[in-house]
Write a sequence for this structure.
């Protein structure tokens, strides 16, 4: 096992723990805004994990996926935050 | 870039992104209200993304790759603060925050 394999395993464990924390907050989050923030963290973790996989395997196949996620991951949290019930004025 | 230097750069940038993501996860678990969780959640969206995309650009250095990486970072830098700002604004207006944790509340008069 080379040093890069160890780095890849450590980084994978960190990404996994972050994703688990985000999923815990999505399930248990006391308000809908906590769930929105946690889903944003989950998307950011997936983006970073895809990029790390590209860096380790020396290819660029996932870059369009990263571009689409960077463009459109905002729409869910934006619409939830904008049309949240209970807001008095825009 | 190849060889030992390339591997060291790859390892450092990927571990930086991984530490950012882990810090965001720990912040989501430990922080007390929406605004503080938002503070920790917005770190990997820009810094982690910049680390991994810089890593990809260093490993496969070409015009196409660098252009796509610049576009990714630019669009993320446009959209992520917009979402964070709207979520924070909605949290303030719907009282999803703990007023005892605020140091300064400049919008108290406008809030009514």
């Amino acid at each position: 096992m080379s040093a890069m394999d160890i780095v890849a395993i450590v980084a994978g464990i960190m990404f996994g723990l972050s994703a688990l924390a985000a999923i815990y907050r999505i399930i248990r989050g006391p308000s809908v805004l906590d769930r929105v923030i946690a889903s944003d963290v989950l998307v950011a973790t997936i983006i970073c994990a895809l990029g790390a996989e590209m860096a380790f395997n020396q290819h660029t196949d996932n870059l369009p996926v990263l571009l689409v996620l960077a463009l459109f991951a905002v729409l869910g949290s934006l619409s939830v935050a904008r049309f949240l019930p209970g807001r008095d004025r825009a | 870039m190849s060889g030992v230097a390339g591997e060291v750069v790859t390892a450092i940038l990927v571990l930086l992104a991984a530490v950012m993501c882990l810090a965001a996860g720990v912040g989501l678990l430990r922080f007390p209200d929406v605004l503080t969780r938002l503070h920790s959640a917005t770190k990997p969206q820009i810094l982690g993304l910049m680390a991994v995309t810089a890593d990809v650009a260093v490993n496969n250095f070409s015009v196409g790759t660098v252009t796509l990486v610049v576009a990714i970072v630019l669009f993320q830098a446009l959209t992520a603060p917009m979402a964070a700002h709207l979520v924070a604004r909605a949290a303030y207006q719907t009282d999803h925050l703990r007023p005892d944790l605020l140091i300064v509340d400049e919008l108290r008069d406008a809030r009514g």
